[in-house]
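Limitations

Structures in this collection are predictions, not experimental determinations, and the ligand pose is part of the prediction. Treat each record accordingly. The example that follows, with EPU as the small molecule, is included so readers can see exactly what is and is not provided: the inputs are given verbatim, and the output is the predicted complex.
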Amino acid sequence: MDKFVVKGGVPLRGEIATGGAKNSALPALAATLLTDQPVNLQRIPRVRDVRTMQRLLVDIGASADVDGESVRIQVRVVRSPEAPYELVKTMRASSLVLGPLVARAGRARVSLPGGCAIGARPINLHLAGLEQLGAQIQQAHGYVEAVAPQGLRGATIRFERITVTGTEDLMMAAVLARGETVLQNAAREPEVTDLATLLGKMGAKIAGAGTSTIRIEGVEQLHGAEHSIIPDRIEAGTFLVAGAITAGDLTVTGCIPEHNAALINKLQAAGAEVTEVNTSTLRVRALTGLRSADVTTEEYPGFPTDLQAQYMALMTQAEGIAIINETIFENRFMHAQEMARMGANIRLEGHQAIVAGRKELTGAGVIASDLRASASLVLAALVARGETVIDRVYHIDRGYDKIEGKLAAVGAQIRRIE
Ligand code: EPU
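Predicted complex:
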């Protein structure tokens, strides 16, 4: 298993580029199931979850041509409308094929995701929504089977709680349903809007994406399209924290500043200087010492749970007590114990982490437990005295495209060992 070896203490300086958003690429790839024509997707990040999704599509019947960050998918026929356990267990976003498969083929069989390092992560809201669209759902042998032999019909669906992939899954089911579907209490994440843009290019009729009420007028069929994925706000956010935590001067290019507004506010409250150089470039500097600022994770446009771990690393280097409140997932603090091994003072109380800073961190052997936790350990290692060895970096490869190369190019002393 690959490891990262990081020597801390170097301020990061220079330019670092943002890639395409993993969490936009995954639903976009799933959307290719909705038509028999080719869909060309650009700025698809070369990360492991994307490769897993491509494998899943090929198993289902797709042909996939990959050329760097461009991917051309064509699903002439759905050969096997199934997402097997072997793939779902490594990537729960596999459940994104459920909606499109029922809509296109009238049938889907998808393994139920099990537990996960960050919480329970059920898909009950996806299933309840599909039932409201007229699908019959059965569960047996660890799989959920959804059938709609007569096709789906539009309905008004109110999500009990906001779910990102749930909104995406049902949006993809509804585009081919008969009549109008209204999704209420829908997720407003930029990735949901990006998917709606792609579906629109494929001929779907969707209004209100980016707000909490999405209206979808079903159409007979969709056609091929070309689409470039939005920049990854979580990758850009991770780089902004890297600049601030190392007291560096980092310019993050190819991003959408507005998508990181909540993080930028917190960085500024913590004493970092963040400026919008132009519409796709942010510059972060931390010239004076950092101070603590509390944070609560929320659905977009609130502070993203996917940046909570990275922010915790930052708060270990800020003067004062910071309270970090995690409201989206019940168990997303696995990184706290690892940071404590590096010298951080973090107390966990239920959904809250209380971080007392500033504490000097020292290099240690640590283990990455999930994707964003691994990123936070890299950040902590960048300021730790001495050498940190981060084990199980396959987690980070799920969602970051060669993060060590990008960080090394701006001065980080980081290398991968096999
Ligand atoms: N939930 C339910 N029932 C459902 C669906 C969700 O109870 O049917 C609960 C979840 O357990 C959780 C909350 O609702 O407590 C929100 O979960 P959501 O469904 O929004 O999460 P997701 O769609 O599975 C996506 C991202 C995650 C990100 C979350 C929250 C993708 C592929 N994944 O997951 O990204 O943390 O939204 O913003 O878009 C990551 O990239 O590291 C990552 C975990």
